[in-house]
Amino acid sequence: MTYDQLLTLDAIIKAGSFKAAAERLHKSQPSISVAVKKLEEEFQIQIFSRAEYRPKLTETGKAFYEKARLALFHMQSLNSFGEELAMGIESNVHVGMDALCPGEKLYCPLKMFFDDYPATTLHLQMDVISGTLEKLEKGEIQIGIMPIHHHNLDLQQYDSFPIGEVTMMPVIHKNHLENIDLSIHELKKIPQLIIPSTGSDRSITYGVLEGGNHWKVTDMAMKQEMISSGLGWGGLPFHKIQNELESGELVMIDMEPLIKRTSTIHIVRNKLRPLGPVSTQLWEKLKEVKF
After folding, report:
1. Ranked by mean pLDDT, which of 141-150, 166-175, 253-262 comes out on top?
2. Where along the chain do its domains lie?
3. Which CATH class for the 3-86 domain?
4. Which H or E run includes 163?
């Protein structure tokens, strides 16, 4: 049994077919079939049922795959650890931040940290919903700062640590309320401003009023400006609009299904992607941030 054979088995399960696994691993389809056949012959077991058009694990295959996943995880973790040991000081560190995060609580700690590493360039990226997690998975960022409540986070693959909370509130400008009684029916006539996910599936959204008038914008600052100018309504982080709520310029919408919700913000890292010495120190420093 080889590491490559286990990778092949994992790719077949995740991709759903031998052909898709071959494309994923940049191998020929016959070589994928041979890898599985050698595994079955070595242990005298049948991993996949031959009665199905698409590869389906037998009961024996399911048990074998569970152990194979653990072996792959430990091998990949060991590989990452070896790469971390071999790394010198990184010239670049990439950090991803969800648009919900209070930047004012994070920018100063980041500046103070990188003052001690003048040879390292920080690349700070802003994303929405699934964008940060996808970049972690692809290795495009080393650390993500994000809510994780709407993600099925694989705790075997990711480390996470809570650093604060953010409350999202559906709000509307007071001018909209001068001639109407606030109701779901009336809200559907007013544009709801939405920021689509920056992940691969841009249809993922949260807190969207079905059947309403939807305008899509690209970032939180634009959304806030438009809502504050009376051009629509939508969810905004409380820390960004506290003054406008207190002055009465913005009014919170408090009716089902539109209610405020609080999310815990975590720092997240992919265990299967190595962190260099600077990234490792940054991870520990960010654990000290609280809001």
Report:
1. 166-175
2. 3-86, 92-164+264-286, 166-263
3. mainly alpha
4. strand 158-173
